[in-house]
Amino acid sequence: MWVIVSPSPITHNDFMINTHFKTDVYIEYLRISFLSLLAYRANYFLGVINYVIHVGVYYFIYKALYSSGGNINNYTMSDMVTYVAIGWISKSLYLNYMDHDIAGDVRNGAIAVDLIKPVDYQFLNYARGLGQSLFRLLFFTPPIIIATFLLYPVHGPSSLFNLFLFCISTVLSIFLYVGLNFFIGLIAVYTISIEGILYPKNMIIELFSGLLVPIDWFPQSFQYVSSFLPFKYIAFVPLSLYLGRVDMSLAIRALLIQLIWVILLFTAGRILWFMCRKKITIHGG
What we know:
By secondary structure, the protein is an all-alpha fold. It contains twelve helices and two strands. The protein has a two-stranded antiparallel ribbon.
């Protein structure tokens, strides 16, 4: 049967962040998310191999592209190998499947269990996403870093300060990706399934984030469009900071814009969630 969940009336306070919520509850969700990934050791090892292979594919593509030497748009061969390698290392941190998980919970009715708990659904999912990133930081990313630095000619950051800026930007990228996936996952409340959205969504992010090809390699029209989207702050901006291709004044500005996007996506997800509370239909029974 179908069960319609009738949400409580939405008040002004619903849109405000409750500073009195118990942080230990969300830390527990983060821990559970962390441990759930730890249970799938085969996926862990295959994931490491998959990332190293991806870097290898792009390494040989750019090696052929730079076969005559020189540079392209002021990127040397060494820069591009480093760009690709660090880009995939960063992806191992921010990647999560929250959108797929939320859609699955909506489809099988498991979301009803979360709705009856005295927790904020958005914070709950952010905690789950951050738990996945924490697992990747501790167990997934280090072997990828070791393998890529041993197998490919990857160079270090342009300076320690640039490495510091890169780390800050990568942390913001994690929150950006969590915010995007939370928003996309909630679309399942209206469509039941988002399988047809996930693949093009991932391809759009990889293209407009600059993970596949640096944004400044594209025509000006493409760069202009990407400047109004949050995607380039996921990969291109952190990688540009790592390579030292951004002046310090512009670097601070880029980080501020990245933070603004994090806040905007959080706010957009919150508004969409309160809209979804009026539409949720639980299937099953």
